[in-house]
Amino acid sequence: MPLDPFFEERLRVHRKYMFDQAMSTVRTRLTALWPFSRVPIVPAAASTDTDAKAAKKAKTAPALGPHARARARHRRAALAWDRTELSTVGTPGPEVRITEHEIAVPGYPSVRVRIYHPSVVGDAPVPAVLAFFGGAFRIGGIDYPTTDAAYRRRCVDAHVAIAAVDYALAPEHRYPVQIEQGYAALDWLFASAGEVGVDPSRIGVMGVSAGGSLAAALTLVNRDRAKHRLALQVLEVPVVDLTGAHMDLGAMRALRIPRFLTTRELRSVARTYLARAADAREAYASPLRAASHEGLPPAVILTAEYDPLRGDGDAYGAALRRAGVDASVVRYQGVTHDTPIFTGALPAARRWHDDVVTALRRLHA
């Protein structure tokens, strides 16, 4: 069906962003090849006491290269954009009780887990879901306003504890850091279920986009290692094959976005997240490519019509069903990859929220 009118201006901005990014890459590469553009920068001498302190601090602090500075700017812009989206087209989250936990990850950086607790009568344990945010593995976090608001609303409406994993971002931390952090968080949640008021027999995982990849991978890691009883996986617009073999370019052609821009974006995501191109063929990086999907928890997969990742979601649902896993795939017509954010302005986004809540309520069974 036609793209919802809500997205028309956003699509224009997105097209421009993708073209600008491609041109910026071209300019950077041409500049690097042009020898006369490399002008050395000589720092000026410190002239005041304050300047001397600043100079000393600059010497001791790690210097940020141009790529690191660009990433920092991009993340600041993404956070500002997210804040605006919540205030203009999102839905604020209700007040809920929150606890913060720092989880050790053997051999890797520790990870922060924030639990959103639903209200309870007495000390009865509640179902829980380990949740992974989206952001192409390189932006986002549990403190992003729309992410925090969504977790709060889902916690209250589904009456399920949301254990949100603030996994490390790439490229500072590459695969499999995020997988190991997720597994450590899952292991901790089962081990500490009684302490945090969670029923260990009713725990699931969920994730959006890149977070959907991590959630799906975690079901494989858990099956291969601890074999905790996972009751559910909810995957929203997941990327489950970083080789790009299942990317549906028809979705982007319908939006008049050239093929090379779409494939360039996926390659960029994979290069950022993976240390080696060959890693994309590993099951924990690309869960769809696992040799077997048997024994995984029931799955609810949500995809969008105008999203090249709809092919990933369709293929993953089919792979799960072939392996005997209870799996459903729902495609939302007329909408795009980031639909869940727009609950304050888009009926489809509100329905999306309701459907996720319905899926999470299965944990009460």
Task: Explain what you see.
This protein has an 8-stranded mixed β-sheet with strand order 1-2-4-3-5-6-7-8, sandwiched between helices. It starts with 7 loop residues before the first helix and ends in a 5-residue tail after the last helix. With 365 residues, the chain is α/β, with parallel strands linked by helices. It contains 11 helices and 8 strands. Helices cover 43% and strands 19% of the residues.
- The number of distinct helices, counting runs of at least 4 residues, comes to 11
Percentage of residues in helical conformation: 40-55%
Element order, helices and strands?
Answer: HHHEEEHEHHEHEHHEHEH
Biggest sheet architecture? 8 strands, mixed
Overall geometry: globular
How many beta-strand segments?
8
Q: How would you write the strand order of the largest sheet?
A: 1-2-4-3-5-6-7-8
User: What structural class do helix, strand and pairing data support?
Assistant: alpha/beta
What oligomeric state best describes the polypeptide chains here?
single chain
